[in-house]
Write a structure and sequence with these properties.
homodimer, about 350 residues, alpha/beta, Isopropylmalate Dehydrogenase, two-stranded antiparallel sheet, 12 helices, about 40% helix, globular, binds 3-isopropylmalic acid, 3-isopropylmalate dehydrogenase (chains A, B), EC 1.1.1.85 (chains A, B), oxidoreductase (chains A, B), Isopropylmalate_DH (chains A, B)
């Protein structure tokens, strides 16, 4: 098959890790007889430097015209960089919000899984993690307080700010359907997280999730308050299979969940919409402090490329091949510095990419 | 001295644990020559049963007329109880929100501390907790999305809900001042948590916190994004001293922080306003599943009573005496079932109260 992939390296370690993921995609193309056409686009700080804005309309249009987008990371040290001395809608992260909304990517899928080879990195005690956990966070990505009106005004000399959190039933329904579909192929267990004892959006969320659940009698659904979920993730993460939640809660809980795996450098993500076009990116950030040093872990981005193959191109076998290659390299004892432990062989970004590509 | 204390036992285990805290307060009164006058008020499910609403105006007025309020817990099994078959503003938790707002309690102080005797209960690995951690969460309690307008409507047959998150500078300033004051008496370190890369309320929050920080040159202040904070609490909780945040983020993060101590049955809280009147309650909930069994841990409520003595009555010595008594009882090996471990002596709610009272 032929496919058009937009590459958005972004800032910080972005270019280094995207280069390795591209290397892996090239290897897949060669081995399985596919042809990927790439176009590199600017987004984030690098786009601010080049065009004065974090994502130009032209880049957004090019992303829309592609079959899939592979992203590194955007942004820098908030507050310490020239990129943050401007209006909020001109900062690097605004590019990310703009592309999510522009591409209609309402479903953010973030697997948080404990790799058996990296069990020691988990900050939780062995008796809590048992033989590991494997959660999928399904976060709504184009609604909620992220995309309601934001306003700051001065009334009688007093500054006041307002952010509007809003959801309509269709926005909730489509992400709920995706979550139940994902759960059906996994542990058949959805935990829907909200704050229904306080928020109207959460009460609507709960009602709509219950309605959608009726079409999935084979999937168990449970509702949990967000504060409780933040506790349960630490106390008993193995109770979860698929966690379904709104944008802001998903932002917080998915980071918490990824940290309890102990290896955020390993975690991929996919942001999907109604069609096949998706955006794939590592769960971690741009790590400006280690940019350019050749030590960043490219695995999260490589695994994001695997998700790209699976979700945007339906290349399940190829996706599996990438995932297996990663596991084999880990089994062989190779580690980047962030996941290094005694007795293992430390390698840099490029070598890690090479090693994984070789195993495909 | 003489003081008027409103007791609000509430639901579930509430009455059992408040009885033990009262026992301790009585012992303090006797030993130190004070006189506490008590009035018992209904709030939560029990008030719904009695009056059809979670907190009557009369009870609120009586709470206002007291010097301090000691609360057990309100609510039951959400969804499984008759208390939740009514409109949101008639549910048990609405009583809690109403009393917080009615008493102007804008500052919620929740210490999350690892008790040295209970280190084993911490879900984090020993190398992460080191010789323990001791955090204070300062949560804004009467603003933000909790108290903005909540609305659900149907437009062209589509249900839509909206919640408004709002803060003005004065609301931020007063909680920030409290946080810096608390930090000054502790580790002199404030981490202010927001989502300034997305929310206007967070950008205002950050600006006002920086303004307040100027009056506290001896206190270090750092800003952290809420998603990052949710990670850092798990990865490196010892970096924190005082965490300052808005209402919703504080709800989530304080529960996460309390869970990483591993003993939520031990954690107290105080909700304060501009004057001396405060509301004191355990950080845990009403635990309906173990209500009436005599096994609930009363220590969080007893330690909340200690905070009551300290903040509402300026009885620092007496507060310390209660805290020391709790430590001695733990040292002597007594445990309720939730904190039980090998070689310790298991006791019930009443015995635990007796043991602590005896040590005063
Ligand atoms: C950079 C930021 C706007 C973004 C978000 O909050 O969604 C990030 O934290 C994420 O989770 O992808
Ligand atoms: C019961 C609920 C409304 C309350 C809150 O969200 O504030 C509780 O979770 C808390 O933290 O005290």
């Amino acid at each position: 098959m032929t496919g058009k992939i937009a590459l958005i390296p972004g800032d910080g370690i972005g270019p280094e890790i995207v280069a390795e993921a591209k290397k892996v995609l090239d290897t897949v193309a060669k081995k399985y007889g596919h042809e990927f056409e790439y176009e590199t686009l600017l987004m984030g700080g690098c786009s601010i430097d080049a065009y004065g804005e974090p994502l130009t309309e032209e880049s957004l249009e090019k992303a829309k015209a592609s079959d899939a987008v592979l992203l590194g990371a955007v942004g820098g040290n908030v507050g310490n960089s020239r990129w943050y001395q401007v209006a909020p809608n001109l900062r690097p992260e605004a590019g990310l919000l703009k592309i999510r909304k522009g591409l209609g990517l309402f479903a953010n899928i973030r697997p948080a899984k404990l790799f058996s080879q990296l069990k020691d990195a988990c900050p939780l005690k062995p008796e809590i993690i048992g033989d590991g956990f494997d959660i999928v966070m399904m976060r709504e990505l184009t609604g909620g307080v992220y995309f309601g009106e934001h306003k700051t005004e001065e009334i009688d000399g007093i500054r006041k700010s307002t952010d509007i959190m809003a959801y309509d039933e269709n926005e909730i329904k489509r992400i709920a359907v995706k979550a139940f579909e994902v759960a059906r192929k996994r542990g058949k267990n959805v935990t829907s997280v909200d704050k229904a004892n306080v928020l109207d959006t959460s009460r609507l969320w709960r009602a709509v999730v219950d309605e959608v659940a009726k079409d999935y009698p084979d999937v168990t659904v449970k509702h949990m308050l967000v504060d409780n979920c933040a506790m349960q993730l630490v106390m008993n993460p193995r109770q979860f299979d698929v966690i379904l939640t709104e944008n802001m809660f998903g932002d917080i809980l998915s980071d918490e969940a990824s940290m309890i795996t102990g290896s955020i450098g390993m975690l991929s993500s996919a942001s999907l919409g109604a069609g096949k076009l998706g955006l794939y990116e590592p769960s971690h950030g741009s790590a400006p402090d280690i940019a350019g040093k050749g030590i960043a872990n490219p695995i999260a981005t490589i695994l994001s490329a695997a998700m790209l193959l699976r979700y945007s191109f339906d290349l399940d076998e190829e996706a599996k091949a990438v995932e297996t290659a990663v596991e084999e390299v880990l089994k062989a004892g190779y580690r980047t510095i962030d996941i290094m432990s005694e007795g293992m062989t430390q390698v840099g970004t490029v070598s890690m990419g090479d090693l994984i590509a070789e195993k495909i």
